[in-house]
Amino acid sequence: MALNPVKRRQVRRERLNRLLPNTLTTLGLCCGFTAVRFGLQEKWEISILFIGAAALFDTLDGRVARLMGGQTELGGQLDSLADAISFGVAPIMLLYLWSLNNAGGIGWAISVLFVVCSILRLARFNVSSVATDVPVWASNYFSGVATPAAAGMVLLPLILGIETGWDFFRSAWLTLPWTIVISGLMIAPIPTYSFKHIRVPKKFVTLSLASVGLLAAALITEPWLTLSALIVAFSASIPFAVLSFKKRQDENEFSHPSGDISSDDNA
């Protein structure tokens, strides 16, 4: 039976709502994997830009899906698989080609460790995302460092090396322990800020837009210095997230003495 024009338009709209977020996720996956290609050519700046593009698409796909009502089980699984490539495999391959390969087999083993931890991080999220007993305020935190953030953190020596030209940042004596630390932070049960549910008060909208413009200008004029500052700022926020989470947890337990707080993944 043929659909009437109104129903036909509604079906097309629903298909578009499901297709667009998955298209953004796929574009992010392509950007992440393409970063490896330019890494093989030692075009480090271009590689990092592609990782950044993958992070942008990763930020947009979920928000577009929620805005358009196009959230699906397929989209959620696709997003995790794309993150595994773009933020689990691609960044550590760049760091391996740039520095860790100088440590021989140990460098490769640590690279594998990073990939394994990123996959465990994503798998833990897929399991915990169906939890219904998590308090509303806990959605403002991740358990462990999210894979996109970990990708930026592990690439910090490479970014600083590009900015300064110092061989010190390329030393495996620096990048090996640094990679181990970041790998551990991904699977560690420590709260970190998610920044997913930031709401800007109406009176600060103009200031927020000006700040975004300033950040965009900084990224254009001094991209590596600005990226380094953002990564360092996020890293410095981790202790504050731990303290903030503990405070909220204590307040919740005081208000609901018999409640059981679960604060697993949201990345």
Total of DSSP H or I helical runs spanning 4+ residues: 9
As a whole number of angstroms, the C-alpha radius of gyration is 20 Å
Q: Give the total of beta strands.
A: 2
In sequence order, what are the helices and strands, one letter per element? HHHHEHHHEHH
Strand content: under 5%
Shape: globular
Low-confidence region ranges: 258-267
Overall average residue pLDDT? 83
Q: Please estimate the helix content.
A: over 70%
Strand arrangement across the biggest beta sheet: 1-2
**Multimer state:** single chain
Q: Please describe the biggest sheet, giving its number of strands, its sense, and whether it closes into a barrel.
A: 2 strands, antiparallel
How does the helix and strand content classify structurally? mainly alpha
Distance between the termini: 43 Å
Give the key terms.
mainly alpha, disordered C terminus, 2% strand, 9 helices, two-stranded antiparallel ribbon, 267 residues
Verbal overview:
73% of the residues lie in helices and 2% in strands. It has helices at residues 5-40, 44-68, 73-98, 105-128, 147-154, 156-164, 172-187, 205-221, 223-255, and strands at 141-143, 191-193. It has a two-stranded antiparallel ribbon. Helix 4 packs parallel to helix 7 (172-187).
Quick description:
With about 270 residues, the protein is an all-alpha fold. The protein has helices spanning about 5-40, 45-70, 75-100, 105-130, 145-155, 155-165, 170-185, 205-220, 225-255, and strands at about 140-145, 190-195.
Fold blueprint:
Elements: H1 5-40, H2 44-68, H3 73-98, H4 105-128, E1 141-143, H5 147-154, H6 156-164, H7 172-187, E2 191-193, H8 205-221, H9 223-255
Antiparallel strand pairs: 1-2
